[in-house]
Design a protein that fits this description.
It holds the Pfam family Amidohydro_1. InterPro entries: Amidohydro-rel, Metal_Hydrolase, MTA/SAH_deaminase. GO terms for molecular function: hydrolase activity. Keywords: Hydrolase. Helix 2 packs parallel to helix 3, helix 3 packs parallel to helix 4 and helix 4 packs parallel to helix 5. Helices cover about 40% and strands about 20% of the residues. The protein has an eight-stranded parallel sheet with strand order 2-3-4-5-6-7-8-9. A five-stranded antiparallel sheet has the order 1-10-11-12-13, covered by helices on one side. The chain has one domain: Metal-dependent hydrolases (TIM Barrel, Alpha-Beta Barrel). A hairpin with a 2-residue loop joins strand 12 and strand 13. The chain is of the alpha/beta class.
């Protein structure tokens, strides 16, 4: 039984995350637009993936988050993709958190609108290898076989970064029973980033329905929200990252009025941000609770979960203990593998510190061309 000073609840759901243990600020991510911030993500320090994911998951657990929907993507060949995925799953499984791992992919226009004249982006911003449609299908099939204890979904990282052919291939895979999750209209420019209407393209290729959730959806029109509601698509609001990345404010009240299921994504923007504080940036207290629990579970496709979080001070976000499916992962406010967690955190900090000067230099390279970059976006995203 809980003492009078504590309260027990179900676990929270982070319905859109990249499972990074470091914040945008740690990497110098920012700028005057979402597109600039995205470009600057290429300048981030690469830390050990298994450590990064393990620490991110452990930190979420100690904040009462027991379930995550993580969108996974990396550039490279199939071996690179699988190696990064393996490290990600190692970190997830070691932490004990429940996860839906969404296998994402792109094949075009990650940093510039389709058809825009290509400026001289720094070398570290260049995309030299993407998975083919067949390779992506093989990666999904192999992951499902190799990790039977993990739930998988699929999706375009964002529909504006995918050709119609690739969206069709993802739709074919999804029809085999995979959930779909994607970034969606995170910025105004994404609407015209590639030819064709983004919502219509996803609908045409079977990527919208009750098994789909879309993150951000900041720039959806009323008509688009009407269609998404009719199709039973869930939407995940990420108000903290939207604010930090200059993406805008999603019309979440309109989502709710239309009967859309709403989840909340912390989006790995700031590991120190408390889930309730993030949710309340977009929702009333009651709706914030709902979005972090049943709304998030619905967006990630989970039901009948058995988690228990005991809070020492719920309003201040202080956790006493956490159980995931009956297994204790946090006790007396401390993650179960505290020593291993701190060692992983130290390795990440050391990597960040060693790369500090190089990271600054990479940002300087972006600084030198950022005005030209903004002109290219303005000229190409029409």
């Amino acid at each position: 039984m809980s003492s009078p000073s504590t309260v027990a609840t179900a676990g929270f759901v982070d319905a859109h995350t990249h499972l990074r243990s470091t914040s945008y600020a740690d990497h110098g991510i920012g700028g005057t637009s979402f597109e600039e911030a995205l470009l600057r993500m290429s300048a981030m320090t690469s830390v050990p993936i298994d450590d990064d994911v393990f620490v991110a998951c452990a930190d979420l657990l100690t904040q009462g988050v027991t379930t995550v929907q993580v969108i996974f993507h990396t550039f490279g060949d199939p071996d690179d993709y699988r190696a990064a995925l393996h490290a990600t799953i190692q970190g997830i499984e070691r932490s004990g958190i429940r996860a839906l791992v969404v296998l994402g992919t792109t094949d075009q226009a990650e940093f510039l609108p389709t058809g825009a004249t290509h400026p001289e982006l720094p070398d570290f911003c260049q995309v030299t290898r993407r998975l083919s449609e067949a390779e992506f299908g093989d990666v999904v099939s192999k992951a499902t076989r190799d990790y039977p204890g993990i739930s998988f979904g699929v999706g375009p990282v964002g529909p504006q970064w995918c050709s119609d052919s690739l969206l069709g291939a993802i739709g074919d895979i999804a029809s085999e029973g995979y959930r779909v999750h994607s970034h969606f209209l995170e910025s105004a420019a994404q609407r015209t980033w590639a030819p064709g209407d983004v919502l219509s393209r996803m609908k045409t290729h079977g990527l919208l329905g009750p098994s789909t959730s879309l993150a951000h959806a900041v720039w959806c029109s009323g008509e688009e929200l009407h269609i998404l509601s009719d199709l039973g698509v869930g939407l995940v609001t990420c108000p903290h990252s939207n604010r930090l990345l200059q993406a805008g404010r999603a019309p979440v009240d309109d989502w709710l009025r239309r009967g859309i299921t709403v989840g909340v994504g912390l989006d790995s923007a700031d590991p120190a941000a408390r889930p309730l504080d993030v949710a309340r940036l977009a929702l009333s207290s009651a709706e914030a609770e709902r979005g972090l629990t049943e709304g998030g579970l619905s967006c990630a496709g989970f039901s009948n979960v058995h988690d228990r979080v005991v809070w020492t001070d719920r309003e201040s976000g202080i956790v006493d203990s956490v159980e995931v499916d009956g297994t204790t992962v946090v006790s007396r406010g401390q993650f179960r593998e505290h020593s291993a967690l701190e060692l992983a955190r130290e390795r990440i900090t050391e990597t960040m510190n060693r790369d500090a000067a190089n990271r600054k230099s990479r940002h300087s390279s972006i600084d030198a061309m950022i005005h030209r970059y903004h002109r290219q976006i303005a000229g190409g995203a029409r």
